[in-house]
Amino acid sequence: MSIDRVVKPAEYWDAFVAGAGPAGSTVARLLATKGLSVLLADRAVFPRDKVCGCCINGAAVDALDRTGLGGLLDDLGAHRLERLDLRGFSRRANISLPSGYAVSRRVFDAALVREAEQAGAVFRPGTVARLDREQNDGWHVELMPATDTAASTIHARVVLAADGLDGGFLRDHPRFNPISEPDSKVGLGLTIVVPQAELGVGEIRMTVGPHGYVGLVRLEDGLVDVAAAIDRKLLEDATPEVVIRSILEREGSLPDFKVVWGIRGTPALTRQRDVRGGRRLFLLGDAAGYVEPFTGEGIAWGLNSALRVAPLAEAASVSWSDSHLIEWERFLGREIEKRQTACRVARGVLARPWLAALTIRIIARAPVLARPVVAGLNRPIPERL
Ligand SMILES: Cc1cc2nc3c(=O)[nH]c(=O)nc-3n(C[C@H](O)[C@H](O)[C@H](O)COP(=O)(O)OP(=O)(O)OC[C@H]3O[C@@H](n4cnc5c(N)ncnc54)[C@H](O)[C@@H]3O)c2cc1C
């Protein structure tokens, strides 16, 4: 904490949640529903955009159902996903999708925050949070409103770090430093206007090139989301927009487009943390580790993690037992990391253009071969081990 800041008197909360993405706002809502006093803070002001393919797969839809928000996506006007148009190395494969929706993160994340507030959680937008020091019965957290010079310190009996890929909430605790994997791609995102005839509703167009891939999907408001994962070295010689256009152009996937929301980037996408919690502290969602987005599962991992961590955090807010952390690590290992394996395989294939080309060629000839993989990615994630 900087010494020139005025520290306001502490507030006391049962639970503090850093980050109001799908993981954070869902666990905040679940804990508030159980009667805990919950403070949820996000450095962004909502609604906010986020670099994302905006596809909510079947495992995420199932998790929403189980949190009692089964009708949310239809209420938000999200489009049901019907097919994947996979293009690359001069080949095209059409794969039908069993489930899933497309919705902008601006609308989806704001709706989840609203649900958390309705359940009783208090939301502080525009507030940067930093984990301070551990107390016997909880943690001190420093909160810094973007518009204020005064930081305040609150006390929480249990803390949930859901601050995404590069949040910095844990920056003063080196044992939680994330480890980026070598050659990890970086993410890019923008929103564009594309004529209806060029990209249908309910279609994901995924274009693969030798050094990255770009996904396009039409959103609930008619705009088109563009999300890309590319080798960082491409950005040494070209702007992000040129890189995205060249990947699309190569495969004839470039619709005639106009940019509405400019390019944003992410740090290295594939990263892990060796430690995913501590006394009265749980890391979840991207903050607990992420593998690049080809299979479009990050939201499912975040929502399912929120479902699983909520009862552990509720118990931990009363009294701490190391078994809470053991159970949490076991869930992450057995369910989330297991699901990340498919994504790691995809990452390995995409890193070898000859293998990526061969795979797309095979799928283009026999799309039925992709069916079990697609079904597996959409399969619900069990809550209990
Ligand atoms: C290019 C790309 C495409 C993707 N496509 C898909 C897809 O189609 N489908 C899918 O399921 N997943 C996709 N993902 C992954 C998905 O975006 C993430 O997995 C998901 O957003 C993780 O949710 P989260 O709640 O853990 O974190 P986030 O959604 O990242 O939310 C973290 C929040 O924490 C806030 N925050 C950060 N630091 C602080 C701080 N110190 N204090 C307070 N607040 C803080 C941020 O402002 C943010 O709102 C994609 C990712 C990328 C990069």
Q: Can you describe this structure?
A:
- The chain is α+β, with helices and mostly antiparallel strands and 385 residues long.
- The protein has one domain: FAD/NAD(P)-binding domain, CATH 3.50.50.
- It is 31% helix and 30% strand.
- The protein contains 9 helices and 21 strands.
- The strands form 4 sheets. Strands 1, 2, 8, 9, 10, 11, 19 and 20 form an 8-stranded mixed β-sheet that branches. A 7-stranded mixed β-sheet has the order 6-5-14-15-16-13-17, with helices on both faces.
- The radius of gyration is 21 Å and the shape is globular.
- The site of flavin-adenine dinucleotide has 42 residues, from helix 1, strand 9, strand 13, strand 16 and helix 6.
Mean pLDDT: 92
Pattern of helices and strands: EHEEHHEEEEHEEEEEEEEEHEEEEEHHHH
| Total strand segments | 21
Weakly predicted, low-confidence segments: 1-9
CATH class identity: Alpha Beta
Q: Note the gap between the termini.
A: 40 Å
Name given to the CATH architecture: 3-Layer(bba) Sandwich
Task: Tally the helices.
Answer: 9
CATH topology: FAD/NAD(P)-binding domain
Structural class, by secondary structure, is alpha+beta
Radius of gyration: 21 Å
The biggest beta sheet reads: 8 strands, mixed
Strand content: 25-35%
Bound molecules: flavin-adenine dinucleotide
CATH superfamily: FAD/NAD(P)-binding domain
**Domain module tally:** 1
What is the helix fraction of residues, given as a range? 25-40%
Indicate the overall shape.
globular
